[in-house]
Amino acid sequence: MLDWDSLRYFLEVARTQRVSAAARKLGVEHTTVSRRIRALEAELDSLLFEKSRNTGFLLTDDGQRLFVYAEQMESAVHSARENLSGIGQALSGHLRIGATEGFGSYVLTPLAADFQRRYPHITLDILPVPRFVSLSKREADLAITIERPQRGPYICTKLCDYTLRLYGTPGYLANHAPIHERADLAGHTFIGYVDELLFSERLRYLEDLLPESRVVLRSTSVIAQYHATLQGRSLAILPCFIAAQDPRLVPVLEDEIAITRSFWMYCHEDLHKLKRMAILWDFMRRSVTRNTRLLAGKQGTMRYLP
C-alpha cells in the first residue's frame, strides 16, 4: 500500500523540480527527500523522474500518471482534515492567491487585508506577478488572471471586466503639443511592454490601438510603467484601477480611447469544496462587483463590503 507521506515528498519534487526546493518546503534535509524518492521508486519498481543537472527532476510518463492520483489523494486529505477536525467550522487555515501584478497589488491586496480582518484565523499569501501562476504545480490555490484556462480540473468564473485608458500627468500635457484627437498622438512618446516578453497577447493593446506610436521606454511590469508615467515625460496605457486612484494622472482622449479586458478567477475543483475557499471565493466576487466603477475608471477610491 502506498504511503501518503512518501507521496507528499513526490508531489513537492514534481512541483518544484528540485530536491533542495522541495526540502525547504517540507522542512527537512535534501538527503531525506532524495532517500524518500528512491524508496518510492523502488517500491513501485518504476522510474518516476528523469534527473538532470540543468533541468532538475522532470516527471517520466509513469511519474505523470502517479502525479494525477497523488493530487487527488492530497485533495482528499485536505477535505478530510477540514471536515473532521473542525477547521471548516472555525474558518481557519491557509490559502495562497496568485494574480496579475497590477490587479494583485492595487485591488487584490487591499481586499485580502479586508478579508483577513473579517476572518483572522485564515492566513493568506498574495502573489502579484507579471506572469501566469501554475495551479497544477500548486504555486497558488486560487488564480485571478486575464485569460480563462482552456483545460484542467478547475472551477472558473468571469470575475469582472476592467478598463484601460491613456494617461499622462498634467505637467506633461501642459508642456507638449495639445491632444484634441487621436491623430495628434503622432507627435508624442509612449511607455509600454517589452513585446517579446509579453506573457499574454491580451496585453498587446498599445500597438493594436496606436500602431505607429513611438515607444521610448518599455518594461515587463505595469507598475514600473505607472511610475515611469508619473515622471511626466511620456504617455502610457494603464489600467484604470491603478491610474484612477492617483490624482497625479489624468486620462487623455477619455471618450475616444478605452480598452476593455476581463479577469477570470479559478481554482482546482477539489479545493473549491473547502469551506475556507468557498468563503474567499464569494468574498472576492462580491467585493470586486462592489468596485465596478473603480475598474471602469469612473471613481478613484476602493469600496469595501459593509
* Element string (H = helix, E = strand): HHHEEHHEHEEEHEHEHEHEEHH
Oligomer: single chain
- Measured by DSSP, the beta-strand proportion falls in 15-25%
Low-confidence stretches: none
N-C termini distance? 51 Å
Helix content: 40-55%
Give a written overview of the molecule.
The protein is an alpha/beta fold. It contains twelve helices and eleven strands. The protein has helices at 4-16, 19-26, 30-44, 61-85, 87-90, 101-118, 170-175, 205-209, 222-229, 240-243, 275-290, 292-295, and strands at 49-52, 56-59, 93-100, 122-129, 142-145, 154-168, 189-192, 214-218, 235-239, 250-252, 259-268. Strands 3, 4, 5, 6, 7, 8, 9, 10 and 11 form a nine-stranded mixed β-sheet that branches. A two-stranded antiparallel sheet has the order 1-2. Strand 3, helix 6 and strand 4 form a beta-alpha-beta unit. Helix 1 crosses helix 3. It is elongated. It starts with a helix and ends in an 11-residue tail after the last helix. The model has no long low-confidence stretch (mean pLDDT 90).
